[in-house]
Write a structure and sequence with these properties.
By secondary structure, this protein is mainly beta. Helices cover about 5% and strands about 45% of the residues. The protein has a five-stranded antiparallel sheet, with no helix packed on it. A four-stranded antiparallel sheet has the order 5-10-7-8, with no helix packed on it.
Length: about 160
């Protein structure tokens, strides 16, 4: 096969543009992974994305990666400090949170991180997901959520 034929075949299998498709593409902004050292001396890869109008605050978000749930909290308001049900192992630790109400919600998994904030809005449910890659296990952990009393939230921690 010549190079021109290969390029033509690759072009034929690529994206197509059509005005016939009325569906809108997803507009979920995502922050690409960043590497930083955490307080526990691990390397953390944090990903975050927010979406308006998705999810619920009446139930804990379902696990994204099918991991073991360390904490599931549904329909809470304002501040909370919640212990994890199990010890934190090594490997990926993911935190998902959904919120509704006007104000900024902050989440911190102690003592290992991640820590992040989410701007909540009154009319829609907003959500984000953050991950950290831990090099060693930690015996205990807690999740600290800080939010105005007008903000309702739900979260899941999985590993």
């Amino acid at each position: 096969m010549t190079a021109v034929t290969v390029l033509a075949l690759l072009g034929a299998g690529g994206c197509t543009g059509s005005d016939d498709d009325p569906s809108e593409p997803s507009s979920t902004p995502v922050t690409m992974p960043a590497t930083r050292p955490s307080a526990a001396g691990t390397t953390a890869g944090t990903t975050a994305g927010t979406a308006a109008g998705t999810g619920t605050v009446s139930e804990a978000p379902p696990p994204l990666r099918g991991g073991e749930i360390l904490l599931g909290a549904k329909s809470r308001r304002g501040n909370a400090t919640l212990p994890l049900a199990k010890k934190i192992g090594d490997g990926r630790l993911g935190v998902q949170v959904n919120c509704r109400g006007k104000g900024t919600l902050s989440v911190s998994v102690e003592p290992v991180g991640p820590s992040f904030s989410l701007e909540c809005v009154a009319q829609d449910v907003r959500g984000t997901h953050n991950e950290i890659d831990l090099k060693r296990p930690t015996a205990e952990g807690t999740v600290r959520v800080t939010a105005p009393s007008a903000v309702t939230w739900a979260l899941t921690v999985e590993q």
